[in-house]
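Can't paste images in this forum, so I'm doing it all in text. The chain is below; anyone willing to post the predicted C-alpha cells underneath?
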Amino acid sequence: MKTFNRFILLLILAGVVQTAPAQDNGQADLRKKLMGSMPDSERVNTLNALSRSYFNDNPDSSVIIAMSSRDLAEKIGYRPGQALALKNMGIGYYWLGKNLDAVKSAQLAMAVYESIGDTKGVANMLSNQGAVYFNQGDDAKSLELHLQSLKLSEKLNDTLRILTSLTNIGAVYLNKTATYQKALEFFLRSYNMSLAIKDQYSIGTSTANLGETYFKIGDDEKALFYLTESVKAYAGTEDLPYPMNYIGRIYTREKKYDKAIETHREAYNIASKLGSRLDMTQSLVAMAQAYFAKGDIRSAIATYKQSLEHSVPLNNLSAMIDAYGGLSGAYSNLHDYANAYGYDQLLLSAKDSMYNIDTDKKLATLSFTRDLEMKESEISLLSKDKLIQQQQITRQKLVRNGFIGGFAIVLVFASLFLKQRIRIAKEKKRSDDLMLNILPSDTAEELKATGTAKTKSFDSVSVLFTDFKNFTQASELLTPEELVAEINYCYSEFDRIVTRYGVEKIKTIGDSYMCAAGLPVENDTHPIDIISAGLEMVEFIEKNKRDRIAKGQPYFELRIGVHSGPVVAGIVGIKKFAYDIWGDTVNTASRMESSGYPGKVNISGTTYELVKDKFLCDHRGKIEAKNKGQIDMYFVEGISLKVIQENRYHLL
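Text version of the structure:
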C-alpha cells in the first residue's frame, strides 16, 4: 500500500525530509564541522545528523556514516548516541531493501534503548521492525510488533508513535479481505487523533487509507467523503494524485465517465510535473479503464499504450498486467484478434513473472526468518566455543610444562650441533622468500634453474585493476609521509586478500593496484577468485573510510574493474626482474575500472558469462569505453541466492 509505506518512512524519519538545496547545504555544514575539533560525544551526534541527511538520496552513505558513529559511540560508552546510530543503520538498510540487516540493526538499537531505560526508543524500534516484516510479507510478525509498539506508546502518551502504530496496524489488516473491518477500526482511530493534533499530512494519510478501505469494501459514498478530505489535506503535496485516482475510479464505477477521465487526467498532470512515474502510470491505467467503460475503445488503447511507456521501464508488473489485459480486451472488442492474441501472451508472461516474484518473496520470508534465527544463535555458540578453547589451552599448558623440564638438557646440546645448519638454512630461506616475493613460484624456480624464464600464453585469466577516487584531492590534505603510510596500509591488506584467494599480484602503478587470477597455474575458478577478492577489497576500504570519517580524516574510495580473456605473461630484461602480463585483456580490464563507480566491482560481459550463476549482478547496459567502443558492463552486488541456498543446504 503506497500511502502506508510513505507514512512509515515519514514517521521513522520524523523531520529529516528537506528540499534538495537545503539538504545539500546541511550536509556540507555537517561535513565541515566534522573536520574541526570537538568532544567525541558531539562528534557522534554530528555523524548521526549527517547519516540522517543521506536517507533519501544516498542510503549507502547513510549506513556507512552511521557505522562510524556507532563505533565511536561504543568506544566512548555514549549509549544514546550508539542507539541512534544503530537506528539510522536500520533505516538506511530499509531504504536499500536489506531487510535482514534492517531488523538486526533495529534489534541492537532496541537492546541499547532498553539498557538506558528509553521506552520511547524501544517503541520506535518495535515499530521499525514491524515495518520491515510487513515488507517481507510476514503479516503475523509485523502485527505482533506493531501491537507491542502501540501498547508502549499509549503508556507514554506519545502521539507520534501512537499514530504510527495505528496506521501500520491498519495497513496489515488491509492486506486481507477478511480483516477490512479491523483495518477501518485502526484507520478511524488514526484519523481522530490526526484531527486532534491538526496535522494536515497525517489527516491526508488517514483519510486516504479510510477512502481506499471503503472503496475496497464497496461503500462508495463513504469512500468519496474521505478521499475528498484527503485531497484537501494533501493539496500542494506529491501525494495528491493518490486519492484523486481513487475518486476517479469511483466515478467510473458510478458510470460518470467524463468526470472520471477529467479527474485522472488532472492527477496525471500533477504527477507529471513532479516527475512521479509511478503516479503517472496509475493515472493513465485508470483513465484507460474509464475510456473503455465509456466505449471509447480507440482512446483506451492509446492511453493503455501510454501507460506502458512508464510501467515497462519501472518493471511495474501490476500496472503492466492491467495494461496488457486492457489492450487484449480492447483489440478483441474491435475484432482485431491478432493484436488481442499478442497482448494476451504478454499478459500471461507478466502474470508468470508476478507469480515468480510472489513465490520468491515467500521463499525469501522463510530464508529471512531462518537467517535471523541463525544469527541470534551465533552468539551463544561462539561463547561455548570460547569456553571449550580455554579449557583446551589449560590442558595443553599442563602437558607442555611437564615436558619442558625433561627435554631442557637435550635441547641445549642439540642447539650446539644445529646452530650452524640453522644459520645457513635461514640465509637460503631469506633469499628464496625475497625471490618469491617478486616472482611467482614456477617462474622463480625456472629462473634459479636456467638463469632465464620464458614467457607463457594463457587462454583464459581474469585481470583486476583498482583505483582510488579523488586520490589527488585527498593527497593534498595529507603530508607525504601520511600519504605513503595510508597507501602502504591499503596495499598491504590487498596483498593479504589476494593471497587468500590464490590471486597473483602483478604490480602497483601509483594509486592503482593490478592483479590476475588463473596464472601462473591455470584454473577454472579464476573469475570467481578475483571477484571474491575484489568484493573483500571494497569491504575493507569502506570500513577504513568509516574509521577515517569518525576521526575527521580524509579518506579514499575504491573503484574496481575486472575483465577475462587471454594474456601473455613472463619477465623481460636482465635487471630488476618483474613478472608482468600483456594483451588486450589487460587494457579492457583497465577500462572496466575507469568506467566503474566507487564502492563497486565493475565487470565486463565476458566475465559476467563466466560467473552469472555464482554472483548477483546488475546489468548497466552497453557503456562507452575509451578506445574500445561500447561494452556490456555489470556491477557485482554479491553472491547469488542459488549459491547461498546451496551453502545453507550443506550446513544443515
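Residues 1-22, 357-368, 373-425, 643-652 have pLDDT under 50 and may be disordered. The first helix runs from residue 2 to 13.
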